[in-house]
Specification:
heterodimer; A: 541 residues; nine-stranded mixed beta sheet; two-stranded antiparallel ribbon; globular; B: mainly alpha; Fumarate Reductase Cytochrome B subunit
C-alpha cells in the first residue's frame, strides 16, 4: 500500500465535515427559537342580551347604594346569595386541610395589622355596605355591593372610611387634604353595569395595605392599562386580558386564593377538559411550553413565575417593603418623603421603605401557606413569621416560587407573647382611644385587644415580623424572562437554595473544586520544574 | 552507522480520531468549566448547549474509534504491561537530564511505551466511560425517577467534575510530554503527518522517546 502524506489531510477534513454535520443535527433539537405563546383570548364582544339603560327600575334617582342592589336583585334573584357564599363577602376562609379558620376577619398582618376594631376603614374594600362594627348582618342581601365589581363607568368609588358605602354628599379624604369626594351618579352607573374589568378588581386589589401598590408588589394601578413589558397578559398591547380571564368566576366565587394556591398544575391545558382551576399558567400554556427541552425539564421544580416575573413592582408605583409602627405618632416629623417622592415617614403609621423593580426572594412552595391568626402565640426570641410558604425540595408538589418579603415592626404583648391588635381608626369623632385620634399606643392596644376578645397584659413592646406575598402577576414578555445565567452562576438568584437542590454553576461540592484546582496547579508546577531541569541539563551538555 | 528511518506510526483514521478527539475535549473542557461556574465566557445557555452538542459528537467519535480499534486489532496496543515501567519512570525523572537514550523504541508493531499503555488504557476504560455515562445521564436528569435511577444530580455531577479534573491534569501532562521527543515538535509532527523520523543506529540499539 502506497501512502502519501497529504492524502491524510483530505480524509481528516472529510471526517470533520461529517462530524460537524452530526453536531448540528444533534443540536437541532436543542436550538432555542420563539417560545410558544398561549392562544390569544377571544376579542371581548358585546354578548349581553340585556341593555341596562332600558330597564325602568334603573332609571330612578337612587339615594343610596343599597337601593341599587335592591333594583339589581329584582332581576338577578340569586346574585346576592351567590356573593354571600364567597370570601369576598364573609372574609372567612375555612382551610379544607386543617381545622383552621382564616380570612381577613381572623388573620393578622404587618400592614394595618387587623380588621377588628378598625372596621369602617378596612371594610371600604368589603363587597358590601355598612360593616362598621361587630354587629354587621351578614345575611342582609341588600347590603351586597354589586356596583364595585360591575361598574363600567369608572365613576363608582367606595369612600375609604365609609364602611363600604360611596359618599352621598361631598366629603374630604384624607382629612385635611382638601381632596373632596363627590357623590357618584348612582342612576347613571346602574344603567351602565357590565362585566368586571381590571379597573373594578383593581379598585380594591391594587390598593391593598392602604395605598397603591403597597401590599402585593405584583399589583398596582399600572395594571389597569399596563405597558406590555409590565404585564404581557393584561396589556392592551399584549393579550389585553382581564383578571376574570384567569380568575374565572364560578357562580360569583373567584378562584385563586392566596391561602391555598396551586403552585404546580399537573393537569395542563384546560381545553378541551378543565381541571376546574383555570387560574394557573399551565391552564393555557400547557406543561411543556418551551421549545428547548432542557427548559421544559425545569417546570417540575421551578414555577413559571420564577423566570417570567424577573422583578416585581415594575409599574409606575413602588411597593412597600418595610413598615415600622414603633416610631409612629411624631407629629413634629409629620410626613417625610425621599428623593423619589415616596413617603418614608408618616406620623400616623411610622417609617416605611419602598422598592421598585424588586428582585423576589425564592422559596420551595407547594401552594400551602401557614397563616398566623389573631391571638396565636409567638416566640419573641425567634424571628416571627406571620405567614410561611410551605414546601420542600423533597416534596414533589413543591416548586421554587418567587415571593415579596415584607418586613416590619409591630406591637406585641411581652407577657402574653402574642401580637397586638391596634385600634387605629376611631369608632366615632369622640373616640380618642384610637391611635389615629389620640396617638397613644396604650389605649389603642387596650381597646384593640378588648374588641378582639383577646387578653392584654397592659404592657407592649415592638417586634420585627415577616410576611411572604406570592408573586404571580406582572408576567414579562418572554424575551424579558430571566436568562439561564440568572441562576446558573456563582451567587445567582437561587444562591440561598443551592444547598437544597443542585444548580449547575451555582452549586459545587465544597472540596472537590479546591482539591481539583490544587492538583491541577501542582501538575503545572511539576511540568515547569521538569522542563526547567531539562533546559539546565541540555545547557550543561 | 547512524541514519534516520521514517516510520509510519499513525494511520489516517488514527490521526483524524486523535485530533478530533483533542478538539472536542478542548471544547468540552472550555464549555464544561463554564457550566460548572468557573468563569463566564459564552454565557451559561450557549456554554451548556455547546457542551451537550460536543458531548454527543464525542460519543459518535468514540463509537467509530471503538469500531476501528477492534476491526484493526489496534486495541492490542493498549494491553497493559508493568514490565519496564520502573525503567520508564527512571528515565523521565533522571536519565532524561543526563541525556541518556530513551529506553523504549517505537515501531509499527508497538507504538506505545509501557507508561503510555497504562495511561491511555486508564483513559479509555475509566475516565471516558465515567464521563460519557454521567454526562448522558445528566442530559436526561429529569427522567431518572421514571427510569428508577436513585442517584441525585449532585452526586452524578460531582463524579463528572472529578473526571474533568483528572482529564485536565492528563491534558497538561500529555501536551508537555509531546515536547520530550527527539526535537520539541517531533511527536506532534508525527501525529499530524503519520510518519515519525526515528534515528537508527545500526551499531547500537536505542534512540528516541515516546509521548
Amino acid at each position: 500500500m502506497r501512502l502519501r502524506r497529504h492524502t491524510g489531510f483530505g480524509w481528516w477534513l472529510g471526517g470533520l465535515v461529517i462530524l460537524l454535520g452530526s453536531i448540528v443535527w444533534v443540536g437541532r433539537g436543542q436550538a432555542a427559537s420563539e417560545p410558544t405563546a398561549a392562544p390569544a383570548p377571544t376579542e371581548a364582544v358585546e354578548v349581553s342580551t340585556a341593555d341596562h339603560t332600558k330597564f325602568e327600575i334603573l332609571k330612578q334617582p337612587f339615594q343610596t347604594a343599597p337601593e341599587v342592589t335592591k333594583a339589581c336583585l329584582s332581576c338577578h334573584t340569586e346574585a346576592a346569595k351567590q356573593v354571600m357564599a364567597t370570601t369576598h363577602w364573609t372574609w372567612v376562609y375555612q382551610d379544607p386541610d386543617s381545622a383552621e379558620t382564616w380570612g381577613k376577619r381572623y388573620v393578622i398582618n404587618n400592614f394595618c395589622v387587623a380588621v377588628v376594631s378598625n372596621w369602617p376603614r378596612c371594610t371600604s374594600c368589603h363587597v358590601g355596605y355598612g360593616w362598621k362594627d361587630d354587629s354587621f348582618d351578614f345575611t342582609n342581601e341588600l347590603a351586597v355591593d354589586c356596583l364595585v365589581c360591575h361598574d363600567t363607568t369608572g365613576q363608582y368609588k367606595k369612600f375609604p372610611a365609609g364602611a363600604g358605602h360611596p359618599v352621598y354628599e361631598p366629603k374630604e379624604f384624607p382629612p385635611g387634604s382638601g381632596n373632596i369626594w363627590e357623590p357618584p351618579d348612582l342612576s347613571y352607573i346602574a344603567q351602565h353595569v357590565g362585566p368586571t374589568s381590571r379597573r373594578t378588581c383593581g379598585a380594591c386589589h391594587f390598593y391593598g395595605g392602604g395605598g397603591d401598590g403597597v401590599k402585593h408588589g405584583d399589583m398596582d394601578s399600572t395594571l389597569a392599562e399596563p405597558p406590555k413589558d409590565v404585564d404581557v397578559h393584561m396589556s392592551p398591547d399584549g393579550a389585553n386580558m382581564t383578571c376574570g380571564d384567569c380568575h374565572k368566576p364560578q357562580v360569583h366565587a373567584i378562584p385563586g386564593s392566596r391561602y391555598r394556591m396551586v403552585a404546580k398544575d399537573t393537569h395542563g391545558k384546560d381545553l378541551p377538559k378543565s381541571d376546574g382551576f383555570p387560574t394557573s399558567c399551565e391552564s393555557c400554556h400547557g406543561l411543556t411550553p418551551h421549545d428547548m427541552p432542557k427548559i421544559n425539564d425545569h417546570v417540575d421544580r421551578v414555577a413559571c413565575q420564577t423566570c417570567h416575573i424577573p422583578t416585581f413592582a415594575r409599574g409606575n408605583k413602588p411597593t412597600k417593603l418595610w413598615w415600622d409602627w414603633s416610631v409612629a405618632g411624631d407629629k413634629a416629623r409629620g410626613i417625610e418623603k425621599d428623593e423619589h417622592g415616596w413617603e418614608v415617614y408618616n406620623f400616623m403609621k411610622g417609617e416605611f421603605r419602598w422598592g421598585k423593580d424588586v428582585v423576589p426572594v425564592y422559596r420551595w412552595f407547594n401552594g400551602r401557606m401557614e397563616v398566623m391568626t389573631l391571638g396565636e402565640p409567638i416566640d419573641p426570641e425567634q424571628p416571627v413569621y406571620i405567614n410561611q410558604p410551605q414546601g420542600s425540595p423533597d416534596d414533589p408538589n413543591s416548586r421554587i416560587y418567587p415571593f415579596k418579603e415584607f418586613r416590619g415592626k409591630q406591637g406585641y404583648d411581652p407577657v402574653n407573647r402574642i401580637l397586638l391588635v391596634p385600634h387605629l381608626f376611631p369608632f366615632n369623632p369622640e373616640d380618642t382611644t384610637a391611635f389615629w385620634k389620640g396617638f397613644d399606643w396604650g389605649p389603642a392596644f387596650e381597646v384593640g385587644m378588648k374588641t378582639a376578645g383577646l387578653p392584654y397584659s397592659g404592657q407592649y413592646d415592638w417586634i420585627e415580623t415577616t410576611m411572604y406575598w406570592p408573586i404571580t402577576h406582572m408576567v414579562a414578555p418572554a424575551e424579558q424572562a430571566l436568562s439561564c445565567q440568572a441562576c446558573h452562576t456563582r451567587q445567582g438568584r437561587l444562591a440561598t437554595l443551592a444547598d437544597t437542590v443542585y444548580i449547575p454553576a451555582q452549586s459545587s461540592h465544597p472540596w472537590v473544586d479546591r482539591i481539583g484546582w490544587t492538583l491541577t496547579g501542582l501538575t503545572v508546577l511539576g511540568v515547569l520544574v521538569h522542563a526547567g531541569l531539562r533546559l539546565v541539563s541540555r545547557r550543561k551538555s | 552507522m547512524k541514519h534516520v528511518r521514517r516510520v509510519y506510526l499513525y494511520s489516517r483514521f488514527e490521526r483524524f480520531w486523535h485530533w478530533t478527539q483533542a478538539l472536542l475535549i478542548l471544547g468540552l473542557g472550555v464549555t464544561g468549566f463554564e457550566v460548572h461556574g468557573t468563569y463566564t465566557l459564552l454565557g451559561f445557555q450557549r456554554a451548556y448547549m455547546w457542551h451537550v452538542r460536543l458531548g454527543w459528537a464525542l460519543v459518535a467519535l468514540i463509537i467509530f474509534a471503538a469500531f476501528w480499534h477492534f476491526t484493526t486489532g489496534q486495541w492490542k496496543q493498549y494491553i497493559p504491561t508493568f514490565e519496564r515501567v520502573g525503567v520508564m519512570l527512571r528515565y523521565y525523572t533522571q536519565g532524561m537530564f543526563r541525556n541518556e537514550p530513551h529506553p523504549y523504541k517505537k515501531s509499527e508493531i508497538s507504538k506505545l511505551n509501557p507508561l503510555q499503555r497504562l495511561t491511555y488504557l486508564g483513559f479509555k476504560i475509566l475516565i471516558a466511560p465515567i464521563f460519557v455515562t454521567t454526562g448522558l445521564l445528566m442530559v436526561y436528569a429529569d427522567r431518572w425517577a421514571e427510569w428508577g435511577i436513585p442517584w441525585s444530580l449532585r452526586s452524578v455531577a460531582t463524579v463528572h467534575i472529578i473526571a474533568a479534573f483528572l482529564m485536565l491534569m492528563f491534558f497538561i501532562v500529555h501536551i508537555y510530554m509531546t515536547t520530550t521527543g527527539r526535537t520539541i515538535f517531533a511527536n506532534i509532527k508525527a501525529m499530524l503527518v503519520g510518519y515519525e523520523e526515528i534515528p537508527w543506529d545500526t551499531a547500537e540499539e536505542g534512540g528516541q522517546a515516546g509521548v
